[in-house]
Amino acid sequence: MIKQAVKKQLITVGDFIEASSDTMPMTLVAGKSGLKRRINEPAINRPGLALTGFYKYFAHKRIQVLGLAEISYLSSLSKAKRGKCLREFFGAKLPCVVVTRGKTILPAMIELADEFRVPLLKTTAVTKDFVNATTIIMENLSAPRSQIQGTMMEIMGIGVLIDGAPGIGKSDTALALIRKGNALVSDDVTSMRVDSAGSIIASPVNITRYHMEIRGLGIIHVPSLFGVSSVRNEKKLDAVITLCSESQRAKEFRGGDKLPAVEILGVEVPHIVIAVIPGRDIANIVEAATLDLKLKKLGHDAEKELDERLVSIMTGGQAVTD
Question: 145-306 belongs to which homologous superfamily?
């Protein structure tokens, strides 16, 4: 049984900026002291009505985006009215404010961002593109996460979590798979989250990223030994393979090598059990089980085809040829 502790994510503005650095980079203009402010709602808000003074249904817990329309409206106001409008806006306990299209930021906005400790950010992205990209980023950041004991691998393009009791040989098996050209995602502890498509995405915890612990050898840095192609930052989870002793399999896994799907964060994942026996090449068996799963996804089920063939022979009287 896979043990998982689901945690609700607490997202800060600093987390949001870091997660956006590759796909939607932003510049921090003011309000640096507020980077630890929490973003309590993942949706994005354009505060058109709020800037006119209507705050009754204002979604102040969301990232606030000021595009061409909002900046143009503010620029059209008198200095006194604009100052009053912006003071009320920045005083509404916002997580952060983002100005899009590379528009010039009004001096009053910079002063109020520092005064109310609200991070003020700037991006050259078009407002529509920024909102779409940021929505995906926030969905990923706010998705429930779970840390699971197990070694995550990419084997022939398939994401596999190798599970099992301590000392059963998960890391040794992973090392042998890496030598065969496969890639490590994480060793020992794996972080799981559900993406916007409903798939489980596995990634390493930061402290052990790219490292493995091998009994009798110690800690190794995988890309230094096997090259950068031997590691992955994250991978979709396609299957769980449990390693266990022969006696444990007979006692706990009576359904055979293939069991009903295991549930992780509400998503069912195919489950395979492999008995660890002295002299057995577990890495080869794990690789074969993964390739068999890949074939099944392509519509080729060897076990089902053999069953159908045997039934056909027994009911149709066909002779079995060598």
Answer: P-loop containing nucleotide triphosphate hydrolases (3.40.50.300)
